[in-house]
Amino acid sequence: MSGTETGAPLGRLEGPLKVTGAARYAAEYPLPETAYAWPVPATIVRGAVTAVHTTDALAMPGALRVLSHANAPRLGPTDDPTLHLLQNAAVPHRGWYVALAVADSLEVARAMAEAVRIDYAVDEHDVVLVPGHPRLYEPERANGGHPARREHGDFATGYAASEVRVDATYTVDAQHNHPLEPHACTALWRAGRLTVYDSNQGSTKVKEVLAALFGLRPEQVTVVSEHVGGGFGSKGTPRAPVVLAALAARQLGRPVKVALPRGQLPAVVGHRAPTVQRLRIGADRAGHIGALGHEIITHTSTVKEFVEQAATPGRTMYTAPHSRTTHRVAALDVPSPSWMRAPGEAPGMYALESAMDELAVALGMDPIELRVRNEPAVEPDTGKPFSSRHLVECLREGARRFGWDARDPRPRSRRAGRQWIGTGVASATYPVLVSPSTAEARTEPGGGFRVRINATDIGTGARTVLAQVAADALGVPVDHVRIDIGCSDLPAAALAGGSSGTASWGWAVHHACRRLRALVAEAGGDAASPTLRAFADTAGEADAPSPYARHAFGAQFAEVAVDMDTGEARVRRLLGVFAAGRILNSRTAHGQFVGGMTMGIGMALLEGSTVDPVYGDFVERDLAAYHVPSCADVPTIEAHWIEEEDRQLNPMGSKGIGEIGSGGTAAAIGNALYHATGVRLRELPMTPDRVLAGLG
């Protein structure tokens, strides 16, 4: 393969390591004299610890220590209070860690944790989000720095004057990330230095946070995250295991390993907060939208504020002279929400695209034509021109591939035995996000090149794609390039999140390799000796303001079968077409698009969690109760893309593709379910009981 074959379906470079078990994850590093720790979660919803009884736990053979707020090392300042663990007696929500049992073996540590007895002072609590909640307030900003409120024109007047109006409320239950690899960390201290093997999406940030918490200089901390088995946002910033492991390792003077049991994850690693979204769209009888209102309420914790930015897609998607998009939030006694799989866009696009389908039905118009009719010339919110926007092409190409023209638009017009069959469509969008990164490229003795950057591969194929970017910039075959990633001792780089990883890292890698290529040329083309090095830092370039609105777009089509006796809905076909800039590796890109749509199936039909109003914890805490798609739930999924050239992005011309796949999938499935049954469900997930209740 030559260096000019970026876009080719190169297999994952680390594939052999993974299939042979040689790839080490955070809990798999074999260190001498390793101790094991098991956290003790609070069993009350709100209050304070009054006593920690450890006698029985410490009497067990192999027991080493029980840490609590009474004896744990003190931590320094942090802007993330979820990491200030074992520092005081307060309990802000159920599942908050109040102690840590440490032993010579995992089995003893777990038994110790069960034997630790905690006394509490219990306060009244409030954990249920409801419309009109007295704690609701409008924050200054939603997640991502988006203004909580944006208004253009006069929404109330424009909506009232519309000939056709839709006013609907959509509810999305809380959802959880549940990566395959648990949140885990192995920590050790040597000569005043802290080394952690941690499962995270960006070890540069983890290094900075640990240095501040433990009063160290950044160069005294090394964070290794060479292989990460999924994160989906829940590993985007430091989480409890890395702090607990480092605390225990410092106090014991030996390595300590912490791997969270899955049932504890929903309380401590973030979740997608539930949302209640009111959509109001007004149009004339020709289908031109005159007014669009998207108002959401959600919850956050009392520990820190996180506001799911679900109303933001309405600021990008369709022409609307009069618009109002707002966010309100209630701080409840619940675990802290955080990023999860296309935060904002995933629930927001579900509500918006469901409402667009309802508007199409009210108008008697094809839902694709309604979207095309309201295609904006510039981004409605900012007035900026789009760097590229091929949503209409995605809709048209998807309709051709899916066979949309043969569709009978009447609900309940197609049956197969005791099943109704329906089809639906939805659009998708996700912003182009890029952050500064640094990278080094150098020649290797004896030939070849090495590229060093603290990128994180969370299963997306980042190593492979970066090797292709480097080979392309160097003008050499890709097998001449070696990639070092996943360690904070490497040149600092942005985290893997917001579909920004490859765009951010690739920018720095491209620059470093182009500069090295020039140095090699100056040396007469001799890349073997002496060693040549080039460095790149994209600060001031990657984060420079853009005069363009930069987004990826897509269209998803779904065919759904609904059993009229049981209410079970199953996806029979799913097809997506995307416009996401230059595709850097067709194999890994296809996998990401299919993965995103699979997540959309889970969001639509399976995934949902509720907070017990009495006990204050999530009822569906593990994979026995919280359902995700299995192979039996996933039909043949087709993923295609438009060949898109966008010179306003980065040197590769690429957009993020990790999250665009999930954006419109849930709405497409919901719209197909309506077409199948004639019943509009406005609550996710669309489980059989909810479908049967809708069918009456």
Question: DSSP strand (E) fraction?
Answer: 15-25%
Q: What is the strand tally?
A: 25
Structural class by SSE content: alpha+beta
Q: What distance separates the N and C termini?
A: 60 Å
Number of helices: 16
**Major beta sheet, strand line-up:** 3-5-1-12-9-10-11
Name the poorly predicted regions: none
Helix content range of the residues, please?
A: 10-25%
**Gross geometry:** globular
What is the arithmetic mean of pLDDT?
96
What Rg is obtained from the alpha carbons, in whole angstroms? Answer: 26 Å
Question: Biggest sheet, in brief?
Answer: 7 strands, mixed
What does this structure look like?
By secondary structure, this protein is α+β, with helices and mostly antiparallel strands. The chain is 25% helix and 24% strand. The protein contains 16 helices and 25 strands. It has a seven-stranded mixed beta sheet, with helices on both faces. The mean pLDDT is 96.
Helices and strands in order:
Blueprint: H1 15-19, E1 35-41, E2 47-53, H2 55-58, E3 63-68, E4 90-91, E5 97-103, H3 106-115, E6 117-122, E7 149-152, H4 155-160, E8 164-172, E9 184-190, E10 193-198, H5 203-213, E11 221-224, H6 240-252, E12 256-259, H7 265-268, E13 275-283, E14 289-301, E15 322-332, H8 345-363, H9 367-373, H10 391-402, E16 415-416, E17 419-431, E18 438-443, E19 449-452, H11 462-474, E20 481-484, H12 501-522, E21 533-537, E22 551-563, E23 569-579, H13 586-606, E24 637-641, H14 660-663, H15 665-677, E25 683-684, H16 688-695
Parallel strand pairs: 1-12, 8-25, 10-11, 14-15, 19-20, 23-24
Antiparallel strand pairs: 1-5, 2-4, 2-6, 3-5, 7-15, 8-13, 9-10, 9-12, 13-14, 16-17, 17-22, 18-19, 18-21, 22-23
